[in-house]
Amino acid sequence: MPHSKPAAAPLEPLPTTLFGKWKHDALSGFLVFLIALPLCLAISINNGFPAVAGLYTAIIGGLLVSFISNSELTIKGPAAGLIPIMAGCVDDFSRVAGPDHAVRMTLAVCVVVGLVQIVLALCKGGALAEFFPTSVVHGMLASIGIIIIAKQVPKALGILTWADGSKLPKEPLELLADIPKLFSQMNPQIALVGLSSVGVLFILSMIKAKWARKIPGPLVVLVLSISLGLWLNLREPHAYNFAGKEYQTSAKHLVDVGSGLGSAFALPEWDALKHGIAWKWIALFAIIASLESLLSAKAVDLLDPWRRKTDFNRDLLGCGVGNAIAGAVGGSPMIAEIVRSRANIDNGARSRWSNIFHGTFLFLFVWLAPTIIAMIPEAALAGMLIFTGYRLAHPREFLHVFQIGREQFCVYCATILGVLAIDLLVGVAIGIALKFIIHLANGMNPKSIFKAWIQAEEIGPETYAIRVSRSATFSNWIAFRKEIRNLGLRGHKNLVIDLSGTTLVDHTVMEKLHEVQREFGEQGLTFDIVGLQDHKPLSSHPMAARKRIHINRMTPEFANR
Question: Cα 258 to the chain's mean position, in Å?
Answer without folding.
Answer: 29
